[in-house]
């Protein structure tokens, strides 16, 4: 296992959900954590805040202007709305595409020049909805399929230029985070029943999987981890 003490990690979506849990776990491992968020005041005081709105290309670019060397990038930021193809709000589609796909891709691209020559790791958070489209998948599921495709494309491109940087995906099922409140917007009763019917994954469960990727030996490259609550059927 590779120790994380003294290494530097850039985490998007750092102030809530999976990103917040990961940042705190990285601090437990004595790593240096740079947290990208719109709400710096919500970060742990030992996290170095980077304020940015990931729907803004200019803000994304500014994250990397004065950034030094990093050993890892973890793209945890994401948004989810129940927005069907047949009658969904295109504004919801655009926000999901900008945050879940475009911002993630730009962070991947911009980060590459900040890794040491020895390499490092990029971890993208996808979803079980990026492996199959659930009945309520709407436009959200395609954005998570795109995350998997981007991860695979980046991995192939890095291999082609003999880069030591590794790329992984983590695809969780239902995780009890504020993102669910957005996804079930207008269907709060359904969310309450879903929470009552299963023990969902916690953000910490997913953060543990990310840590296992970051601490794996250099010759072990993880492609995709799929995880879900044992109560989740599909």
Describe the structure.
This protein has seven helices and seven strands, in the order E-H-E-E-H-E-H-E-H-E-H-H-H-E. It is of the alpha/beta class. It has one domain: 3-Layer(aba) Sandwich (Rossmann fold). Strands 3-2-1-4-5-6-7 form a seven-stranded parallel β-sheet, with helices on both faces. Helix 2 runs parallel beside helix 3. The longest helix has 22 residues. The radius of gyration is 17 Å and the shape is globular. 41% of the residues are buried. The mean pLDDT is 95.
Order of helices and strands: EHEEHEHEHEHHHE
Number of domains: 1
Report how far the terminal alpha carbons are from each other: 32 Å
Percent of residues in beta strands: 5-15%
Q: What structural category do the secondary elements indicate?
A: alpha/beta
Radius of gyration over all CA atoms, rounded: 17 Å
Helix content: 25-40%
Count of runs of 4 or more consecutive helical residues: 7
CATH superfamily: NAD(P)-binding Rossmann-like Domain
Which CATH architecture? 3-Layer(aba) Sandwich
Can you list the strand order of the major beta sheet? 3-2-1-4-5-6-7
Number of strands: 7
Shape: globular
Low-confidence stretches: none
CATH level 1 class label:
Alpha Beta
């Amino acid at each position: 296992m590779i120790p994380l003490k003294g290494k530097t990690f850039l985490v998007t979506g750092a102030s809530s959900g999976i990103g917040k849990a990961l940042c705190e776990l990285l601090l437990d491992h004595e790593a240096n954590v740079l947290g990208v968020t719109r709400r710096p005041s919500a970060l742990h005081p030992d996290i170095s805040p980077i304020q940015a709105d990931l729907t803004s290309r200019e803000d994304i670019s500014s994250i990397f202007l004065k950034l030094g060397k990093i050993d890892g990038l973890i793209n945890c930021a994401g948004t989810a709305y129940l927005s069907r193809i047949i009658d969904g709000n295109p504004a919801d589609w655009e926000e999901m595409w900008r945050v879940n796909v475009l911002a993630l891709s730009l962070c991947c691209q911009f980060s590459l020049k900040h890794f040491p020559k020895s390499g490092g790791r990029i971890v993208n958070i996808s979803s079980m909805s990026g492996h199959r489209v659930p009945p309520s998948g709407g436009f959200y599921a395609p954005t998570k399929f795109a995350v998997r495709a981007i991860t695979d494309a980046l991995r192939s491109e890095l291999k082609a230029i003999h880069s030591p940087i590794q790329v992984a995906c983590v695809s969780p099922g239902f995780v009890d985070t504020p993102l669910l409140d957005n996804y079930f917007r207008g269907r709060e009763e359904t969310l309450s029943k879903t929470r009552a019917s299963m023990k969902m994954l916690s953000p910490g469960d997913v953060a543990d999987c990310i840590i296992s990727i970051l601490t794996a030996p250099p010759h072990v490259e993880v492609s995709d981890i799929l995880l879900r609550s044992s109560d989740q059927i599909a």
